[in-house]
Amino acid sequence: MRYIPNTAGDIESMLSIIGVRDPDDLFRSVPEEFVLKEDLVLPPALSEPDLLSHMREMGAENAHAGSYKCFLGGGAYNHFIPSAVARIVSRSEFYTAYTPYQPEVSQGTLQAMFEYQTLMCELLGMDVSNASLYCGASSSAEAVLMALRVKKGGTVVLSEAVSPEYRRVIRTYCRHGAASIVEAPFDESGATDVGRLEELVNGTTAAVLVQSPNFFGVVEDIERLSALVHEKKSLFVCSFTEPLAFGILRPPGDFDADICCGEGQSFGIPPGFGGPHLGILTAKENLVRNMPGRIVGRTKDEGGKDAYVLTLSAREQHIRREKAKSNVCTNQGLCALTATVYLEGLGKSGIRTLALANHEGAEYAKKKLLEADWVKLGFSGPTFNEFVLRLGHDPTEVVTRLLDKRMIAGIPLGKFYPGLGDCLLVTVTELVSKNDIDALADAFKELY
Amino acid sequence: MKSHGITTLSIQEPLIFDQGSEKRCAFSLPDEGRFGPIEQSIPKHWIREEIEGFPEVSEPELVRHFTRLSTWNYGLDTGFYPLGSCTMKYNPKVNEEAACIPGLSGAHPYQPESISQGALRLLYDLERYLSEITGMDRCTLQPAAGAQGELCGMMLIRAHLERNGSGRRRVLIPDTSHGTNPASVAMCGFEAVPLKSGTKGIIETDAVRNLMDDDVAAIMVTNPNTLGLFEKNIAEIADVVHKQGGFVYCDGANLNALMGMVKVGDLGVDIVHMNLHKTFSTPHGGGGPGAGPVAVKETFAPFLPVPEVVKEKNGIFAFNDDLPLSIGKLKSFYGNFLVCVKAYSYIRAMGARGLRQATQTAVTNANYIRKRLEGHYHLPYDDHCMHECVFTDRLQKKRGVTTLDIAKSIIDRGFHPPTIYFPLVVEGALMIEPTETESREEIDRFVEAMIDIAEETEKNPQNIKDSPRKTKIGRVDEVTAARKPVLRWSPGTDE
């Protein structure tokens, strides 16, 4: 086997040093009845060329943004990934290393994570960031658990306009906590209904979680929501699925959010049929000791040189095991590195230009797609790079019929919101050209 | 033999925030105004200024920055990485290439199933391969890491108990278990009850019998345990637990000792999680992403996370969200799909015989190290080990040299240190797991370096205590890091 250096001859001489004859002798602590007598039932081993052909065949059965005009978003986005990003993160010094427990031989990963934490704080206007969690949904769930620790229990209010993935995962993580979870509806603008939210928040509310831009692409009035939540002495948690929006939008930290969390896949990470992505979690400084996950800090080595190290580990499992703030151990380190390279490459002006290009494309599409007389805008609120259309026909049928034209028109919302059975979520990133939008608008007109 | 120490060029590289110059950008950006004049829908007072702390660098500066940082890392491709219980085996390059195939890396999680058949097929088949390898009936690929797999498994047990009207709350956790186990149990609202292993380093059936009552929901066993020993009483223990209405959870982090040789399902285990980033060769990525699939016996199938992948009568693959008893979703979408792609690619490259050969070789390599270091280091348990062996610093401590010193000295000799001070049940533990992907020569070099450290300890212990000397930085001040945390760079704070 090509991944195993030691040959039968090597093994034989090693076994003689160990003092046994056969490798099976080393398994004598396993009761005889449990040692398998037959091979596992698996397909036969493939050579590397055959394996690659097989994998390519599997890949060829799936659409992707290179083979279809793709208007999908809703939590995973098709953004251009510059070659420099892909090349850097494929350096095996990064991707074949373990969690940086030994700082003397891990300064590359550790300094990069310190830069990542800085970038997240700057982007979101927050004080502290951890070094990543699994995905936007689980980081939002961890944010809720964190708020419950800080507030020593209570109820949680979620906006219905938060990603359905996030809400479901939050509910799973809270299954066995004391918290009851209530949801605040959205209004005709597509934003959280502030009046209804106000009714739901009271003295027992530990935290309120909203998303901006929300699942409908609508930018929430974070300033107003944050003030309302803080008036009731609850924690304000703001999540996101499209962090590129904060290239032009004022971030949650500007409006006094206590915790800001969400998905970082947009920053150089491919959609990958849903993962691995990047869970971002940031907070105000006073909450840092309640944060889950790894955190990198700057210190000195014994010679007085700057050094980086995993720190605040009293929060983690290896100190007081069952009192840990979370069970997170392996995180999404390489995805955090990817986001770091991507954001540093874009830089101050690049992120703004790119965010603006996304927004303008979506605004153009919003107008253009309404040219078909059976298409209406779903919500009136301001949006970033995605928006909801209300169709006069079944959205799933529309999407299915347009596959023949090699277009994926959007995400039908009925599966997530029964009340929005006639709605389609359309996303426009910089990879969607004016021609693509015009083609989708023409296709809409030809359909009915 | 030619020497393999470290003598390398290490270039200083400041934070990116101290580099670059105004108006630089590393990437090509979309043309402004490509849609003509656009009226923006966002109110002016919600628009931000430029992000003050973001850097401005060109592509060559960016690439050089990270290339320099990368040289300060020790990766598995750099050399031997014998971290016990972490299974740092070689990450085959073809797996990385497979995960970059456009139809896999570029597939969107919400694209219609009719144009996602390859991805669905891969998930469906991988679930079945993992079930076969573990001897279980069903499997979910959703958990993103081992710890999330543990949480998933505990939730499955709780859901199953509640469905049957049981309010059991205690989970037995042996002292040789993984650090995340008690935290995962606590997150699920269970109480972790410590279980002492016996004098031979394994769990004794009577110890379980004595703790077992109507309030025990499960026992959480790592097998082989973190001493590298097979829990040979496991089937009997499972019987005791089952008879009293409890379940057996297996932390499968050490599955590399069993693949193709033993099916954990045959041992009476009800639920097991795997770490694809350990046993199935996917890279650790400097801390992730991993994947922690959970395999279960049929009785737990109704509670698995949604969605599941099903194969319909016409051979078409589809997602099924309709599992009314499901514990719900644990993460966005369907798991760390591209990690699953790499594990799938590994299993297809290895086949049944290859997996068995991997296990046998891993166990041989570990026993070879155990044998060769015996006498030079104290062995707390004197028996054949499985995939890893545990030594302590007892002999070296007499000269004032500790496990930490040994670990740092190993770095100076060109190797990554073993896992240290774990498992907790052994004082000053050095836990060595070579895996099957190291050659005998590399293992010999490591063994000789370890013997050299033991000898140097006798002659000049201070030399060991002063290591590492060849690394970019020396030992770090962790106390100040935690007491006065500096967790980010801030604009205007350049020294």
What does it look like?
The complex is a heterodimer of chains A (448) and B (495). By secondary structure, chain A is an alpha/beta fold. Chain A folds into 2 domains: 69-81 and 348-447, Aspartate Aminotransferase, domain 1, CATH 3.90.1150.10; 84-342, 3-Layer(aba) Sandwich (Aspartate Aminotransferase, domain 2). Helix content of chain A is 34%, strand content 14%. In chain A, helix 9 (222-231) links the parallel strand 5 and strand 6 (235-240). With 495 residues, chain B is α/β, with parallel strands linked by helices. Chain B folds into 2 domains: 95-347, Type I PLP-dependent aspartate aminotransferase-like (Major domain) (Aspartate Aminotransferase, domain 2, 3-Layer(aba) Sandwich); 354-480, Aspartate Aminotransferase, domain 1 (Alpha-Beta Complex), CATH 3.90.1150. Chain B has helices at 59-70, 93-99, 102-105, 117-134, 146-163, 180-187, 205-211, 234-243, 337-373, 394-397, 403-412, 440-459, 461-465, 478-483; strands at 138-140, 170-174, 191-195, 216-222, 247-251, 271-273, 294-296, 308-311, 317-320, 389-392, 419-420, 429-432. The longest helix of chain B is centred in the C-terminal third of the chain and has 37 residues, at 337-373. The model of chain B has no long low-confidence stretch (mean pLDDT 95). Classes of the chains: A alpha/beta (448), B alpha/beta (495). Chains A and B meet through helix 1, helix 2, helix 3, helix 4 and helix 5 of A and helix 1, helix 2, helix 3, helix 4 and helix 5 of B.
Q: Biggest interface in this structure?
A: A-B, 199 and 200 residues
Name the structural class of chain A.
alpha/beta
* Uncertain stretches of chain A: none
Order of helices and strands of chain B: HHHHEHEHEHEHEEEEEHEHHEEHHH
Would you tell me the overall average pLDDT of chain A? 96
CATH topology of the largest domain in chain B: Aspartate Aminotransferase, domain 2
Q: Quick one: overall form of chain A?
A: globular
Described by strand count, sense and barrel closure, the largest sheet of chain A is: 7 strands, mixed
- Percentage of residues in DSSP E strands of chain B: 5-15%
The largest sheet of chain B, given as strand count, sense and whether it forms a barrel, is: 7 strands, mixed
What count of structural domains of chain B? 2
Number of separate strands of chain A: 15
Percent of residues in helices of chain A comes to 25-40%
Give the helix tally of chain A.
12
